[in-house]
Amino acid sequence: MNRFILALLLLIAINPVFAGDWISDQDNNCKIWNDNPLPGETIRWSGKCLNGKAEGKGIVTWYVYAVLRSEHEGIYREGKTNGQGISTWPGGHRYVGAYRDGKRNGFGEMTTSKSGYVANERSNLGKWVGDQFVERGIFKDNDFVRSCASEADCKKAELEESSKRERTAREACAQLYTGKAVAFEGEYATKAINTGVRGFITGIGREVASARVTESIYEEMIGSVIEKSCTDFW
Fold first, then answer.
1. What is the mean pLDDT of residues 164-193?
2. What one-character DSSP code corresponds to residue 122?
3. Residue 204 CB coordination number (10 Å)
4. 4-10: long-range contacts at Cβ-Cβ below 8 A with a sequence spacing of 24 or more?
5. Dist CA 96 CA 185 (whole Å)
6. What is the pTM for the complete model shown?
7. Which of 23-27, 93-97, 173-177 has the lowest mean pLDDT?
């Protein structure tokens, strides 16, 4: 198999893009969830099987036309990897970290060789350490979304960003409502910063002709997420 095909297989293995399906170990008929099925693909599962699906700790080895594609060691629930795990690919590529429902989700570290980086066009959030590209931080559905040195640092950064979004939303509302500061948080704050306060209000079919809104409409907009009473609002 030439280098181009190997590089393509690696690209697909690390960044699955196809609709998933179940694949069975031919020796024990135990099923594993497969995010990106490929022609000629087979697996071997070393762990237990419950109701026809991989369950508990074990190792699943993936092959394409009898050529090693990847190996994953971790905990499976109903055929999908969940919790901490270790995945390795040919060429020295390696992921150590959290999984949820068969995908990289949570804190982890992906190490990609120089050749793998060229083939896979990894994110610009990682950094080079020698001849390896390291992505350390938060993954979401296999994508690397936040770079941080530790899980604690990631949580701290997320809290700071959430607080900043809420402050920005409050400032936007204060300007919209003619200097009336609005103290709120949660779901409404997120919508306000993402769509714009005026756009959000218009989106629920309300006109804000004079930048004022009645107490009942205000309560309808933010629902149960507000902690401050609206009794004295305007």
1. 51
2. -
3. 9
4. 6/90, 7/115, 7/119, 8/119, 9/38, 9/64, 9/67, 9/69, 10/89, 10/90, 10/91, 10/93, 10/116, 10/119, 10/120
5. 35
6. 0.63
7. 173-177
